[in-house]
Amino acid sequence: MDRAILSTGAVGMVLTLVISLLLEGIQPVNVLLTVSVGVASWAFMILTLLSYELDYIGEKVLPQVLGGIHLALCVAAFLLVGATQDATGAALAYGALVVADLALVAVAWVLYKRHWAQPEYTLFWRHATSW
Fold first, then answer.
1. Domain-by-domain residue ranges, the chain?
2. Radius of gyration of the chain (CA)
3. Nearest-5° Cα angle at 13, 7 to 18
């Protein structure tokens, strides 16, 4: 799973860079917004992967809490984007979403590492107690 997260991060970084460079030639005023949206999307994808892994190992509540917090943050960011009506305000709203989502990713990463430290043991007991 660590490799999946790293490769997802690398692909997200490269795609964000390529799109940002292409957009800089077309609409330079929107480059900051493009980078913010790209990084926010990457952070959400990583959070989704980590939540899936936590759910798979048997943690049912934590992934839902992390997802609920992310959803509330998205609603707040979208309301800010609607209120600002310009690219700079939207980039700042997405920037705030990026910072908050990266904090959620850090929490999910710590939880993931803790729960997957001994996956055989955890998965055995999850199946053994489900009879």
1. 2-126
2. 18
3. 125
